[in-house]
Write a structure and sequence with these properties.
By secondary structure, this protein is mainly beta. Helix content is about 0%, strand content about 45%. The strands form 3 sheets. Strands 4-10-6-7 form a 4-stranded antiparallel β-sheet, with no helix packed on it. It has a 3-stranded antiparallel β-sheet with strand order 1-2-3, with no helix packed on it. It has a 3-stranded antiparallel β-sheet with strand order 5-9-8, with no helix packed on it. Strand 8 and strand 9 form a beta hairpin. It is globular.
């Protein structure tokens, strides 16, 4: 049973579920979602990362549609107030304190 607000993506069925803390498997939110992942390597004191430098996808960030972005620094999910996304770049409000850690951006939409 997923926790309240926990997001579950099934890669075999291409469905999106959100946990409510009590429903086994979560509540189905969307079918046939699209998922794109960008991964960058953190650079000391750098706050802006260009899509063209991504090791996963050089596709631009979607600017419209029903989707959600999730940004991770290492294994920590960043709050939406910690970053800004434009079509070709990710801007962090605070620069990473260490270099070499992954910064992962995941977009899930329908």
């Amino acid at each position: 049973t997923p926790s309240e607000g926990e997001i579950i993506l099934t890669t075999d069925e291409h469905k999106l579920y959100v946990g409510d803390g009590s429903t086994v498997g979560g509540i189905a939110v969307a079918a046939n979602f699209r998922s794109i992942e960008w991964e960058f390597t953190s650079v000391l004191n750098q706050t802006t990362y260009a899509v063209s430098a991504s090791t996963e996808s050089t596709e631009e960030f979607p600017s419209s549609g029903n989707g959600v972005f999730m940004v991770f620094y290492g294994s920590s999910k960043l709050k939406k107030s910690d970053y800004t996304i434009a079509s070709t770049s990710l801007a962090l409000k605070t620069a990473p304190l260490e270099a070499g850690h992954p910064i992962t951006v995941i977009y899930v939409g329908v």
